Amino acid sequence: MLHRFREAMTDNGSFKLGGQGGPVEMDETFVGGKVRNMHRSKIRKNFHGMSTQGGNGKAVVMGMLQRGGQVRVQVIERRIKKHIAPVVSANVEENSHVITDEAQVYMDMHNTYYHEVINHMEGYVREHVHTNGIENFWALLKRGLGGTYISVEPFHLQAYVAEQVFRYNNRATKDNPLNDADRFAIVMNQVSGKRLTYAELTGKTGQLPQQA
User: Fold this and answer.
1) Which of 60, 71, 77, 147 is the most exposed place for a label (fewest CB within 10 A)?
2) What would the pLDDT profile of 177-194 be if each residue is shown by its tens digit?
3) pTM for this prediction
């Protein structure tokens, strides 16, 4: 039942971020168990000789946050341009102002966006150039996963990400003072057309549930 609620919380991306709005911060994070809590055999299997681009055995999550606006987050296969570029294109308008760290996967974004970079080897804030907003969202996401759900299967990670995205995008603000009852009403209004079968939930169909 809770997964059906998370399915209803999923944002299908009816509009793109950026445009004439605030800058869009982009970043990725890794989600998975702490190394110090892993069995020695699992550490050898997941970490020995592996590239950080693959997440060292952890799930890779890509996020885009518009300052003063919404956040979009997607679990991706690897931290490489092939997987990141389509997510950015689907969620951020062309010619938008975007801010990233110095990761190589973002280095040719100036062809499509007004791109500014913060080099974390030199500092975390340079006037308006920083990614603190999306990094704060990562803290909220990981606090929810680790503190509330303790352990999440990779198969279901996108659903839990969708829940945290919904909470953030429907947070109480000065201009829109939502409460829990308001958020519940929004979820109920989004139930129509979002069907999640038990076979899809358990992976018996051979396909992952479709998440935005």
Assistant:
1) 147
2) 999 999 989 888 888 877
3) 0.80
